[in-house]
Amino acid sequence: DIVMTQSPDSLAVSLGERATINCKSSQSVLYNSNNKNYLAWYQQKPGQPPKLLIYWASTRESGVPDRFSGIGSGTDFTLTISSLQAEDVAVYYCQQYYNSPLTFGGGTKVEIK
Amino acid sequence: QVQLVESGGGVVQPGRSLRLSCAASGFTFSSYAIQWVRQAPGKGLEWVAVISYDGANKYYADSVKGRFTISRDNFKNTLSLQMNSLRAEDTAVYYCARGGSGIYSWFDSWGQGTLVTVSS
């Protein structure tokens, strides 16, 4: 099974500042035949289901603000919120869909400092 | 718009069974893989199972393999999760979510979830 490890577990960022979340997979999720990383990011606010933010490690889902960006390849990935807004308070999860079982990271809680 | 509505949750005793359903609308259900993901109270997300668009391929987390069965009815646009031999650790909110045409895809639409509580 591919283990997804996120860091940090939580972080507090001032409004307008940058938030950076890391995700590391225990094996590469880069599929060589199409050069795509099978990695997605989700946002979950309290009492709500997860919401897709990014897929293919860096492609923003339609309607997601451009302050959210994803980067990385192979085993190391980063989700960045360039200018934190109050509505971004949530838990963020990475997920690999490279193979079964599909696995999630443990989550990173983002709060306002 | 895409809509997924889970139902069937409730309180059940350990060792008993429960069947969850997910009703889909607003898209061509038979073209998409669908998954179940659960979330224990105060915990993170745990993938449970996925079924391909045509029902031919199914995969399960080790924690539920042999106890849970995922199925779909593409005529009724519904997904099901038959859960047998339930354990306390199966207590969670269960979400259904839409994938892509293949099993290995991101999940772009989620239901609101249904709570399953396993307790005597």
Task: Please tell me about this protein's structure.
The complex is a heterodimer of chains A (113) and B (120). In chain A, strands 2, 6, 7, 8, 11, 12 and 13 form a seven-stranded mixed sheet that branches. Chain A has a four-stranded antiparallel sheet with strand order 1-3-10-9, with no helix packed on it. Chain A has a two-stranded antiparallel sheet with strand order 4-5. Chain A has 113 residues and is mainly beta. Helices cover 0% and strands 51% of the residues of chain A. In chain A, a hairpin with a 3-residue loop joins β7 and β8 (59-60). In chain B, the strands form two sheets. In chain B, strands 2, 4, 5, 6, 9, 10 and 11 form a seven-stranded mixed sheet that branches. A four-stranded antiparallel sheet of chain B has the order 1-3-8-7, with no helix packed on it. The model of chain B has no long low-confidence stretch (mean pLDDT 96). Chains A and B meet through β6, β7, β11 and β12 of A and β5 and β10 of B.
| Shape annotation of chain A | globular
The major pleated sheet of chain A works out as: 7 strands, mixed
Bin the strand percentage of chain B: over 45%
**Derived structural class of chain B:** mainly beta
The H/E string of chain B reads EEEEEEEEEEE
Q: Give the low-pLDDT segments of chain B.
A: none
* Oligomeric composition of the shown chains: heterodimer
Number of strands of chain A: 13
The count of helical stretches of chain A stands at 0
**Could you give the distance between the termini of chain B?**
40 Å
Question: Beta-strand percentage of chain A?
Answer: over 45%
What kind of sheet is the major sheet of chain B? Answer: 7 strands, mixed
Q: Mean of the pLDDT scores of chain A?
A: 97
Greatest chain-chain contact: A-B, 27 and 24 residues
* Portion of residues within helices of chain A: under 10%
Task: Evaluate the radius of gyration of chain A.
Answer: 13 Å
- Which class do the helix and strand fractions of chain A yield? mainly beta
N-to-C terminal Cα separation of chain A, in Å? 36 Å
